[in-house]
Amino acid sequence: MKQNNLYNYIISIADNSLILAQRLGELCGHGPTLETDIAGTNISLDLIGQTRNYYQYAAKIQGEGKTEDDLAFLRLEREYKNVLLVEQPNDHFGFVMGRQYLFDVFHLLFMTEMLNSKDETLAAIAKKGIKEVSYHKRFSGDWVKRLGDGTEESNAKMQEAIDDLWVYTDELFDLTEADKAMIADGIGVDTSKLKELYYAEISELLKEANLTVPEGKYFTRGGKKGIHSEHMGYILSDLQYMQRTYPNMEW
Amino acid sequence: MSKNWPLWEIFVRSKNGLEHRHFGSLHASDAEMALENARDVYTRRSEGVSIWVVESTNITASNPEHNGELFEPAQDKVYRHPTFYDLPDEVKHM
Amino acid sequence: MSNEQIKNLEEIFEARIARDEKIEPKDWMPEKYRKTHIRQMSQHAHSEIVGMLPEGNWITRAPSLRRKAALLAKVQDEAGHGLYLYSACETLGVSRDELYEQLHSGKAKYSSIFNYPTVTWADMGAVGWLVDGAAIINQVPLCNTSFGPYARAMVRVCKEESFHQRQGFEIMLKLCNGSQEQKDMAQDALNRWWWPSLMMLGPTDAESIHTEQSMKWKLKRKSNDDLRQQFIDQTVPQAELLGLTIPDPDLKWNDEKGVYDFGEINWDEFWQVVKGHGPCNKQRMKARVSAWENGEWVRDAAMAYADKKEARKLKEAI
Question: How far from the centroid of its chain's Cα atoms is residue A134's Cα?
Fold first, then answer.
């Protein structure tokens, strides 16, 4: 049971990085400048790196002889436990940077706590990841400021993105059964305690960026339980295409 | 139509103890972005430990047409080099 | 300047190049040298960034995490290479925006090979192996070209590109050691990419207009036909190693000449694609143009923000 909880716990963290990396991967070659294409790709590569570490570890915990790729590519939609936020589409660059920033602030708080995990592998992943994620947050935060405090048009677009994405933020702090069990064992991060810090930090930056902090009290959730948005099926169609079409082959 | 992002010259210290060297250029709207872009463009393969960015328009370059007057007069000042001075072989390490 | 003075300068200039001296942006140069360099370097830059599209097409569908990361890193490098080369053009006083404008309006060319579609995963292997292989043959000599910024950009490009071809070949190798379906996929990709890769090295010497001048300026060290022969001679044994068949019934080793003889290239197809009627010309340009147009508000916002910040700083200083 304990191993099962640990497995589920790792999977849910890994899936966030995987799905966000996948979304960023769609953009390469289509961004506003070459420089932003290169930067976005770097973030995506960092996330894929984290993902691989997590899945390799999860596969080991599971002990069924599976590989990182089995876990990344061959689960059913319900078995992916990423938050809804990371699967939201790249509607425009404001959405891309808004989604990134709303996730990065959480991600850094999370990693900083995970550094103290009793699980050495997770602590080690956090130690490496903190440096990557700190940079992601600086990058996305700078862009939210530029777009928020840029032109009238960019301000409206950035506000639209923040307003639309806001409903997915509260889910970041939901605790699943696996979360609770892992927190009790000193392995997992109690994200519910990060909520206040998260909204305080984001509100500060949004104000600096000449943006209004959404007041919405209604939130959408489900990803952590495997109930995803309509986008997820399409993401998986791409992600799983090769592995599903040509099963049991090496690439 | 709007203003383009200016060009920046990027200087990278490739490892501790070495000088910053010109690596190339890129576009950015301001110095912070130039630093971020430089990190992603020019140090993807761990090529650096420190970055300087300078907006290209702030660089004043010598005119190659003046190369003669600027650089040639130094060529015959051989007494500035240690090999100009004759010492007996017995004097070592000088 | 009188004609005689110009002639004199040109002689000094050509002598410098002949002595293997590098020409730097602020040095005097003949107008034709400047124009030729802007054209070649920008074409090269355009090829890098249009080249991101056919490979970018498979990032979300890469079959393993390792492959996904490698492909992303490769496409990212292409963006970097485009950037280095645009920067080299900019030293000659033409902005990246102007060069984009030339690309988007169809005035500037890019390598025609990127107008072919990538329809299977094996195409990622074939593109890396063949297209990057042909590109490297073209590019390595450019590390010694006469224009300093171009030569320096190419040194960086070649250094980074060395993993690209290996990445492609490794994909092919894995497929060729895999199931029948995978082998078929690899052969199919070779069948589709072989001829376009040969065309990529340019029209035959008889039809190539710029060669002589380019040789003198070290923009080119070998003729198109020589490069093509070199590419074929080095690639055929690699195909044999993979167990794949080159789709050319006339291909055979010529013992006397010590090279491979090969069949007729379909130059009509080449010119059709160059003139804009390849399978993906329109699609590629649409993707580039829409990335640029959709990004305008973002670029404007960043500039407006920078100006505001600067103004605030000035105000604080007062």
Answer: 14
Chain C nearest C-alpha distance from B25 (Å): 6
Residue (of C53, C194, C25) closest to C110 by Cα position: C53
DSSP secondary structure letters along C70-126: HHHHHHHHHHHHHHHHHHHHHTTT--HHHHHHHHHTT-S---GGGGS---STHHHHH
To test the contact with chain B by mutation, choose from A33, A35, A36, A100 the residue with the greatest count of B C-beta atoms within 10 A, namely: A35
Q: How far apart are CA C272 and CA A103, in angstroms?
A: 48
Q: What was the pLDDT predicted at B69?
A: 86
pLDDT tens sequence across A113-172? 999 999 999 999 999 999 999 999 999 999 999 999 999 999 999 999 999 999 999 999
Specify the pTM. 0.94
C299 closest CB neighbour out of B5, B26, B61 = B5
* Residue carrying the six token digits 């292409």: C78
Q: How near does any CA of chain A get to the CA of B26, in Å?
A: 8
C291 and A32: CB-CB below 8 Å? yes
Nearest CA to C80 out of C49, C114, C36, C124 is that of C49
Question: What is the per-residue pLDDT for B89?
Answer: 87
Amino acid identity of C275?
K
Which of B29, B21, B20 has its CA nearest to residue B55?
A: B29
Is CATH 1.20.1260.10 the right assignment for the domain spanning A4-245?
A: yes
Nearest to C305 among B2, B29, B41 (CB): B29
A231, A213, A214, A212: which is closest to A222 by C-alpha? A231
Q: What is the DSSP letter of C127?
A: I
Compute the mean pLDDT over every residue in chain B, rounded to the nearest whole number: 91
Each residue of C94-119: pLDDT tens digit? 999 999 999 999 999 999 999 999 99
Q: Is the ipTM of this complex over 0.90?
A: yes
